Amino acid sequence: MTIAIDGPAASGKGTLARRIATHFDFAYLDTGKLYRAVGMAVLRNGGDPADEEAAEDAARALDPVALEDEALARDDAARAASQVAAHPAVRSALMDLQRGVAASPPEGKAGAVLDGRDIGTVICPDATVKLFVTADVEVRADRRHKELLDRGNASIYARVLEDLRERDARDRDRETAPMRPADDAHVLDTSDMTADAAFDAALDLIEAAVREALEKSGDEAE
Ligand code: CDP
């Protein structure tokens, strides 16, 4: 079973995905971290994230240890991530790893939750359930600003808002795997929801979808 969770930056999809994975005892893959690690690797090599070749090299050489780097939470990592993520060669270099987690979740888990931008549309088009988590951009900026401060990073609200708008536009308008809800995704707007309310709403959607999938496989078996 695969649960695909997509949505714009700071929509709360990461918190939600982690809680859902814990609830079902599924594996969890934060695919944004992969792009962040590639973006950071390019910056650290003194390269330009807009340079497709440099970004592709970094994606092919991605070291799992780099995914543990605390610097990945920073906004410069997010900005570099969305630049490297626009290159088709980077996206295809990271594809097998993501599909592998969905197809054979690590540690023998019965399922996987993947969160990102193109999980429901490109990486796992056959996911059991697809959620597209969103919220107003001001609400998202407020959440991200607080999150950065809580982690001890410097943050200015107006700058965070501008960064999110810029990143949303780049993620939405790119040609390869643009951010959009899959046709069969459930859109969850969390603007007026607490994290607990978003979790409850997501759980209702997932349970209904699982029931439907089981009924369908039962019908096919008859
Ligand atoms: O945590 P936040 O929502 O701010 O971002 P993230 O999920 O860590 O992703 C960082 C950037 O990576 C995004 O702005 C996208 O450009 C890119 N990304 C992507 O293109 N595809 C994914 N599946 C995940 C992230």
TrEMBL record:
Highest taxon listed in the record's lineage? Bacteria
Q: Which family does it belong to?
A: Belongs to the cytidylate kinase family. Type 1 subfamily.
Task: Name its cellular compartments.
Answer: Cytoplasm
Protein name as annotated: Cytidylate kinase
Q: Where is this region: Disordered?
A: 168-190
What GO cellular-component annotations does this UniProt entry give? cytoplasm
Alphabetical list of HAMAP family matching this protein: Cytidyl_kinase_type1
Pfam families listed in its UniProt record: Cytidylate_kin
Provide the leader sequence positions: none
Domain Cytidylate kinase per the UniProt entry, residue ranges: 3-207
Basic and acidic residues compositional bias: what residue ranges?
168-189
Name any Gene Ontology BP term: pyrimidine nucleotide metabolic process
Q: Which SUPFAM superfamilies match?
A: P-loop containing nucleoside triphosphate hydrolases
Residue positions annotated to bind ATP are: 7-15
Q: What is its main location?
A: cytoplasm
GO molecular function annotation = ATP binding; dCMP kinase activity
The UniProt keyword set, sorted, is: ATP-binding, Cytoplasm, Kinase, Nucleotide-binding, Transferase
- The coding gene here is cmk
The EC number(s) attached to this protein equal: 2.7.4.25
Q: Which reaction does it catalyse?
A: CMP + ATP = CDP + ADP; dCMP + ATP = dCDP + ADP
Q: Which InterPro entries match?
A: Cytidylate_kin, Cytidylate_kinase_dom, P-loop_NTPase
